[in-house]
């Protein structure tokens, strides 16, 4: 997983939810939601950034699920 700013995967895909707790990720200013989070990397079965996890769930579950914070390659 890597920490990034949330972005829409497509025109009709305007939000996501934390895969663990359901917290919303959304870019709309009026939306009280997460604007950054942990996203899966390219080795995920449906591709990079397909699933999102909020910071608190990542911290709570990283040791149990052996999640690593992958460095970003720019």
3D structure, described in words:
This protein is of the alpha+beta class and 74 residues long. The chain has one domain. The protein contains one helix and five strands, in the order βββββα. The strands form two sheets. The protein has a three-stranded antiparallel beta sheet with strand order 1-4-5. The two termini are 15 Å apart. The mean pLDDT is 89.
Strand order in the largest sheet:
1-4-5
Q: Into which percent range does the helicity of residues fall?
A: 10-25%
Largest sheet: 3 strands, antiparallel
End-to-end span in angstroms? 15 Å
Tally the helices: what do you get?
A: 1
Mean pLDDT: 89
SSE ordering: EEEEEH
Give the domain tally: 1
Q: What structural class results from the helix and strand content?
A: alpha+beta
How much is the radius of gyration in Å? 12 Å
Number of strands: 5
Beta percentage is 15-25%
| 3D shape | globular
Q: Low-confidence parts, pLDDT < 50 over ≥5 residues?
A: none
């Amino acid at each position: 997983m890597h920490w990034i700013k949330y972005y829409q995967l497509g025109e009709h895909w305007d939000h996501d939810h934390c895969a663990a707790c359901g917290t919303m990720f959304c870019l709309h200013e009026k939306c009280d939601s997460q604007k950054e989070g942990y996203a899966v990397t390219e080795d995920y079965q449906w591709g990079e950034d397909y699933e999102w996890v909020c910071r608190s769930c990542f911290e709570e579950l990283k040791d149990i699920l052996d999640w690593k914070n992958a460095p970003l390659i720019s």
